[in-house]
Amino acid sequence: MASEEELFASVDALLEEEPQLPPPAERARLREAAGITQARLAQALKTTTQTVKNYENGRSEPKSPRLEAYQRLLRGWSEKYPAHGVPALSRPEAPETVVVAPAAEGPVPRSVAPPRAPVTPAVPESPAARRPAPSSRRPAKQTPQPVSDARFPHGPLAVLDADGSAYGVDGIVLDCPATSVPELAEWALHESGVGAPRLHRNGKDSDPLIVLTAAAAVKLGLPERLEGHEQRRNLRLPDDHPVVRQVKKAKWQLTQRGFGPWARIYRKAEGTRRQCVQLAVLSWDALDERSWPGVAEMEPPDIARVLGVYARRVITPRGSTAVSGLELMTALRPPTRAVRDETTGNWVPGHNPGSLGTEPMDPAPPEATQEHPVVVGSGWKGGFLNEEAYQWVRDVDLLSDEECHLPYAVGLDLNTAFLAAAARLTVGLSAPDHFHGPQFNPKIPGSWLVDLSHVELDPRLPSPFTPTGERPDGPAWYQTHTVAYAQELGYNVQPLEAYLRRETGAYLDPWHDRLKTAYLDTLADLGVTRDLDDRAFLAAMERHKEADPALAAVLGAIKATVKGGIGKLRERPQGRRYRDGERWPALERPTWRPDIRAAVISKARINMHRKLLNMAKLTGLYPLAVLSDCVVYPSPGPSPLDFLPYAASGKPQPGGFRLGPSPGLAKPEGVQEMLWAVDLMEKGYNPARHIKGGDAVLDEGE
Question: pTM for the full model?
Answer without folding.
Answer: 0.79
